[in-house]
Structures are given as structure tokens and as C-alpha cells.
Amino acid sequence: STSATISLTKATHFINLKKSGTITFKANWKEIVSELPTESFVYNGNPQQPSWVTSTPTGIVITGEKSGTNVDEYVATLTPANGYCWADGSTSSKTVKWYITQRAITITGNSASKTYDGTALTSNGSKITSGSLGANDTATYSATGSQINVGSSSNVPGIVIKNSSGTDVTTNYKITKVNGTLTVNKRNITVTASNASKTYDG
């Protein structure tokens, strides 16, 4: 009898043998997932990475951008390990993108009021009224507005956010701004007429 060892690939569909005998088949490939899912995370101030990095599927070697902190598009490179191939039989590297997106917060400018006194009313401050800062981030708040005469106007909030290293990370946030209101009210005064008298003189 005749014995042969044949290494199979995904592209192997059939084998024609003109000589009769016994054939021993030996598969030396293992099929793995053809794609890994795109994942997205919201910025939280800490390093983050896709689930397929923390728990890498068997047969895949991952290189490239496997971890990130700031808002961005990241690209990882996936390569089959020795003895493995993709579902289509290929062994070339593939890329997969994953994302960190902006963290949403709302800031509201301070509101203030006073009675008219001829000087400008200001209130240089604001605060977060929805959402929260990421881990270890700190904010410096401000507001821009001024009202001198009787009436009302907007107090526009501002914010600068930095991480624990002092780097400005404000762009990692999707910031909704709600204006405060500066109001100057009328000043009440009392006018008293002077008294006067005289003798009738026609």
C-alpha cells in the first residue's frame, strides 16, 4: 500500500490520486476569526483598551495601538500566529480601528443681580450642572459678561480642564454651555420738593 501525508490549506477542496493506496491527511492550519469587532469607549481620564486586547483570541498576534487615553481613532494590527490563518485562508496582517470619544458635560454660567449703582455687574464663575470630569482631571471655571445699566444680559461660561500632569485635555470633552444672567434693577429714589412762603404782594 501507499502512504502519503498531505498538508491542507483552506483553498484545498479535493485531491485526485491516480495510484490506489491509503492516504493519511494531516491538517496543519487552524481557522481563526476573520475580523475583530470595532469598539468605542467614552473618555474617562484613564488608559483604555479593547476587550480583544485584554483577552486576545487564540492564534492572533496584536501590535500597533493597543491602548489609549485621549479622544482619538486608534489602529491595531492583527497577524495570524504560526500555524494559523484567517477564515479565508490568508495569513496577511489586517487592521482594526477602535475609538475613544468625547465625554459630555454641561456647564452653566453664574447668575447675579444688583441695584443700579453706576458700576458694572460681573460674576466670573461657572459650574458643571450635568456630567462629570474624568479621573484625576481638574477644571478652572470662568464666565464672561458685564451689565452696567438697568436690564439683563448673558454671562457666558468658560472652562479649562487639565489632567494630573497639567496637560490641557479640554478637547476630550463635549461641552454644552448654558449662559447665566446678569440683572441690574432700578434704584429707588425719593424726591422732596422744598417749602417756600411769602406775603401776598399782588
The outline comes out as: rod-shaped
- Runs in which pLDDT lies below 50 for 5 or more consecutive residues are 1-21, 23-27
Radius of gyration: 36 Å
| Percent of residues in β-strands | 35-45%
N→C terminal distance: 156 Å
Number of beta-strand segments: 15
In the sheet with the most strands, the strands line up as 4-8-6-5
The succession of helices and strands, N to C, reads EEEEHEEEEEEEEEEE
Indicate the percent of residues in helices: under 10%
Category by helix and strand content? mainly beta
Profile the largest sheet. Answer: 4 strands, mixed
Oligomeric state, counting identical vs distinct chains: single chain
Number of helices: 1
Mean of residue pLDDT values:
86
Task: Describe the protein in words.
This protein is mainly β and 202 residues long. The chain has one helix and 15 strands. The chain has one helix at 51-54, and strands at 5-8, 24-27, 30-31, 40-42, 60-64, 72-80, 84-85, 94-101, 103-109, 112-115, 126-130, 138-144, 151-162, 173-178, 180-185. The longest helix is centred in the N-terminal third of the chain and has 4 residues, at 51-54. The chain is rod-shaped. Residues 1-21 and 23-27 have low confidence and may be disordered.
